[in-house]
Amino acid sequence: MLGRKKLFAWAADAALFIIGGAIYAVAVILFLSGNEISPGGLTGISTMLNYLYGLPVGTVVFILNIPILVIGFIKFGGIFIVKTAVSTVVISITLDIAEELLPELKINPVLAAVFGGLLMGLSISMFMLRGSTTGGVDIIAMLINRRFPHLTVGRLMLASDAFIVAFSALVYKNIESALYSVIALYASSRIMDVMLYGADKGKIVYIITENSACVSEKIMSIVRRGITVIDVTGAYTGRKLKMLMCTVRRNEVSAVCKTARDNDKGAFIVVAEAGDILGEGFKRES
Fold first, then answer.
1. What is the CA radius of gyration of the chain?
2. How do the domains of the chain map onto residue ranges?
3. Interatomic CA distance for residues 126 and 155, integer angstroms
4. pTM above 0.85, yes or no
5. φ/ψ (deg, to 5) at 246
């Protein structure tokens, strides 16, 4: 039974990676790069090098990711980096194939930015749902965050994308290209929020575990969120356990749940919706 579950998980990974890679390639090659719009990240750098020197986008993405993946494996290790490496290879291949097969599509740049961003966000969500990322800036941000914990991964990624988008205005010699890139990145982030975490403003994660000390320590070290420990008793079994309550932003839910499962396979997890969250690390009352 366990072998069958693993086989199904691998098949699901492979299917979503291939579909996600194809969608990502269409978004980048057909909508964004073809209309001189930067998708941010290493892909954005690759599309600019393609524009300047005619270098294949996918191949450049792969080459730029090699040292980052090696360092990421040394620092983090585990299946996460392995899956990220696989997704990077898939994306690189599909980008090069799309560049050869897809026609040049010149359309209204606003439409190109919106649809390119939506497709890019959809594809990235498919990778993240299988415990992977598209590599590049994501891993760099995680590495910097480990060295400087006060710099959050989200802020580091935003800063890197902002720099790349600003640089694209110089490469394409058009300030409007950078502005359209902002639209694409916003559209991408919105569809990722909906796909991964819903459209609400926050989440409350409840974790009932026999290994509360280890689970809470790992969660706090990874997502830098406070945790409330509550004594609970099972009504049917009479067992006394600990329940961890952690309030997080949407983009932190996956990391919290994965960390809990990695450190307690039998953990019972409930993710509840939250509206406005007031307090340290969230919105402050005016």
1. 20
2. 2-197, 202-274
3. 22
4. no
5. -130, 125
